[in-house]
C-alpha cells in the first residue's frame, strides 16, 4: 500500500501522463509518415505480449518478492479459461473473483 | 449516410465495452492504494489502459514509483507506432497542427484500429473522432464509478485482487495469435518469475521487456 507516499504517486502519475502524451504525439505529429525500421516496429509490437504475460504471473504467483500459491490461482485458472473462450471482461472478472473469494471463504 | 451511422454505432458499442474495462480499473486502482482522484487523473491524463493497469499493479505490490513508471511507459510505447500508422492521413483525419496536438491524446489501440479500418478519408476522420470521444467519455465515467465502488468495499473479501490479472489475461489473449507473440509471452513470463525473488518489486516487469528481442532474429 502506498498511503504513506501519496505525493510520490502523484509525481508518478504526472510523469506518466506527460510521457504517454509525448509518445502518442511523437508518432502522430513529429515523425509524420516516416517509416521505422521493420525490426523496431516488430519489437515494439511485442511489448504487450511480453509485459502482460509477466504482469499476469506476478499478480497471480507473487506477493512482494516471494513466490506464493494461494487462492488467486483459482481465479487465474478460471480467468484463463473464460478469456480463451472470449468471454467479455466483466464475465471474466466476476467469475475469477468469485472463484478466489469462494476458496478464501472455505 | 448509413455508412456514417455504421461507424458511429461501432464507436459507441466499443465505448460501452471499454466502460466496463474502466470499471474494473477503477476498483483495482483504489484497492492498490490510489485515491479516487488519483485513479481518475490516471484515466483522464494518461488515457492508455494497459499502462494504467500496469502502473497501479506495481504500486499495489509495493514496488517503487520508478519501476511502476518504467513498465507503464514501455506499454505506452506502442502508441508511437499507432501515431505513425495514423500520421499518413493525419492531416485529413485531425486537421491543422493544434487539432493534431489535441488528437494525439486519443491515439490508442481502439481509435487506431477503427480509423484504419475505414478506407475513405471522410469515414476515417469520423471513426477517429467518434471512437476517441466515445472511449474517453466511457473510460473516465467507468473509472469514476469503479473507483467509488472500490473504496466502499473490501476488495480482498470479494476476491477483487484478481481484477488485475484477469484484466491482463483479457488484454493478453489477442497477442497470442501470432507465433512471435506466444514466444514473447512465454519468455517474458519466465523472465519475470525467475527474477521476482531477487530483483526489486516491479523490476521483473522491466526485465520481461527483453523478451521482445525474439522479434529481432525472426526476420519475416
Q: Strands across the major sheet of chain A, in which order?
A: 1-2
Query: Tally of extended strands of chain B?
Result: 0
Distance linking N and C termini of chain B: 41 Å
Biggest interface = A-B, 81 and 108 residues
Main sheet characteristics of chain B:
none
Number of helices of chain A: 4
pLDDT averaged residue by residue of chain B = 90
Tally the structural domains of chain B.
1
Question: What would the keywords be for this entry?
Answer:
heterodimer, A: 106 residues, mainly alpha, 4 helices, extended, B: 220 residues, 13 helices
Describe this structure in words.
Chain A is mostly helical and 106 residues long. Chain A is 75% helix and 4% strand. Chain A contains 4 helices and 2 strands; from the N terminus they run ααββαα. In chain A, strands 1-2 form a two-stranded antiparallel ribbon. In chain A, strand 1 and strand 2 form a beta hairpin. The longest helix of chain A has 25 residues. The model of chain A has no long low-confidence stretch (mean pLDDT 88). With 220 residues, chain B is an all-alpha fold. Chain B has one domain. In chain B, helix 1 runs antiparallel to helix 2 and helix 1 packs parallel to helix 3. Chain B is globular. At the A-B interface, helix 1, helix 2, strand 1, strand 2 and helix 3 of A face helix 1, helix 2, helix 3, helix 4 and helix 5 of B.
Amino acid at each position: 500500500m502506498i498511503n504513506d507516499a501519496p505525493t510520490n504517486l502523484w509525481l508518478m502519475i504526472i510523469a506518466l501522463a506527460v510521457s504517454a502524451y509525448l509518445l502518442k504525439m511523437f508518432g502522430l505529429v513529429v515523425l509524420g509518415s516516416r517509416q521505422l525500421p521493420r525490426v523496431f516496429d516488430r519489437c515494439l509490437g511485442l511489448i504487450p505480449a511480453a509485459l502482460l504475460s509477466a504482469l499476469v504471473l506476478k499478480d497471480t504467483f507473487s506477493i512482494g518478492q516471494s513466490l506464493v500459491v494461494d487462492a488467486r490461482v483459482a481465479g487465474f485458472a478460471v480467468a484463463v479459461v473464460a478469456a480463451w473462450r472470449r468471454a467479455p471482461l466483466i464475465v471474466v472478472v466476476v467469475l475469477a473473483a468469485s472463484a478466489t473469494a469462494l476458496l478464501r471463504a472455505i | 449516410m448509413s455508412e456514417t451511422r455504421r461507424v458511429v454505432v461501432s464507436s459507441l458499442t466499443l465505448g460501452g465495452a471499454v466502460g466496463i474495462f474502466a470499471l474494473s480499473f477503477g476498483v483495482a486502482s483504489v484497492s492498490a492504494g490510489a485515491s479516487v482522484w488519483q485513479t481518475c487523473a490516471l484515466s483522464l491524463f494518461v488515457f492508455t489502459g494497459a499502462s494504467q493497469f500496469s502502473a497501479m499493479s506495481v504500486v499495489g505490490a509495493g514496488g517503487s514509483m520508478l519501476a511502476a513508471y518504467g513498465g507503464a511507459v514501455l506499454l505506452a510505447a506502442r502508441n508511437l507506432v499507432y501515431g505513425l500508422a495514423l500520421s499518413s492521413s493525419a492531416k485529413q483525419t485531425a486537421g491543422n497542427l493544434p487539432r493534431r496536438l489535441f488528437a494525439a491524446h486519443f491515439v490508442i489501440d481502439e481509435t487506431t484500429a477503427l480509423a484504419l479500418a475505414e478506407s475513405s478519408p471522410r469515414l476515417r476522420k469520423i471513426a477517429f473522432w467518434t471512437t476517441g470521444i466515445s472511449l474517453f467519455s466511457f473510460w473516465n465515467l467507468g473509472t469514476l464509478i469503479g473507483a467509488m465502488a472500490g473504496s466502499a468495499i473490501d476488495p480482498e473479501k470479494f476476491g477483487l485482487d484478481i481484477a488485475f490479472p484477469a484484466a491482463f489475461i483479457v488484454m493478453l489473449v489477442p497477442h497470442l495469435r501470432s507465433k512471435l507473440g506466444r514466444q514473447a509471452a512465454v519468455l517474458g513470463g519466465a523472465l519475470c518469475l525467475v527474477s521476482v525473488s531477487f530483483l526489486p518489486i516491479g523490476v521483473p516487469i522491466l526485465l520481461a521487456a527483453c523478451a521482445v528481442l525474439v522479434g529481432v532474429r525472426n526476420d519475416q
